[in-house]
Design a protein that fits this description.
The protein is α/β, with parallel strands linked by helices. The protein is 40% helix and 20% strand. The strands form three sheets. The protein has a five-stranded parallel beta sheet with strand order 2-1-3-4-5, with helices on both faces. The protein has a four-stranded antiparallel beta sheet with strand order 6-7-8-9, with helices on one face. A two-stranded antiparallel ribbon has the order 10-11. The longest helix has 14 residues.
Length: 225
């Protein structure tokens, strides 16, 4: 699942991005309200976390613009402003939750998962499938033929990307940007190693084989007909 974080405090923003990434989410982090709104309207996010006091455009204005554009993704306000009237204003403008700084990351993560469950998606939308492989987005659980498969956070994010775009050959550059948030470096084999480890967990001992390499192009996940 993909989360947008708009937070201008460098330390807090880095903390959020690292924690959410380690929890298995794909995270885009912006520091400016105008940039945050542009990302919110131009990409598909499952959740947005907005600070109220942002340069360029405050969080309330960002939220109003998101709702005017017809985007109904859950929005969590994260701010040092703890007055009741501030919380009421945020909720009346269409926010789904409000967390005051300083906060415990465990509580934020619990609220994020609660909002994602409420997000208006059906149970089917919370589960990605290919053949007898199932990935539960909310419980962060993967099974194949009913057997639990334990994955690291990066392996989970990689498998989620492959499942969401199954049948498409994904180049290494796209995988690098979506899963590792980095530009592709031809001198590194991090992607090859990750795919090999994921394939060992997902395909070894099972039929059909789902993940394959397309030489010179990238990787694809598809169930053979």
């Amino acid at each position: 699942m993909k989360i947008l974080v708009v937070e201008d405090e460098i330390k807090t923003g880095d903390y959020l991005k690292q924690g959410l990434s380690e929890a298995g989410f794909v995270v885009d982090r912006l520091r400016d309200g105008i940039d945050g709104l542009h990302y919110a309207l131009s990409d598909a996010y499952d959740l947005a976390i907005l600070d109220v006091m942002l340069p360029g455009m405050d969080g309330w204005q960002v939220l109003q613009a998101i709702r005017r554009a017809g985007k109904d993704m859950p929005v969590l306000f994260l701010t040092a402003r703890d007055q009741v009237e501030d919380r009421v204003k945020g909720l009346e403008l269409g926010a789904d939750d409000y967390l005051v700084k300083p906060f415990a990351f465990a509580e934020l993560l619990a609220r994020v998962r609660t909002l994602l469950r409420r997000g208006g998606k059906s149970k089917e939308a919370d589960t990605l499938r290919a053949a007898d492989l199932e990935l539960d987005l909310l419980r962060r659980r993967v099974t194949r033929a009913g057997r639990r498969i334990d994955l690291t956070a990066k392996e989970f994010a990689l498998l989620e990307l492959l499942l969401r775009r199954q049948g498409e050959v994904l180049p290494r550059s796209l995988i690098a940007s979506q899963v590792w948030d980095m530009n592709f470096d031809s001198d590194t084999n991090v992607i090859e190693v990750a795919v090999r480890r994921l394939r060992a967990k997902v395909d070894e001992g099972f039929e059909p084989k789902l993940i394959r390499t397309v030489r010179g192009m990238g990787y694809v996940l598809e169930a053979s007909e």
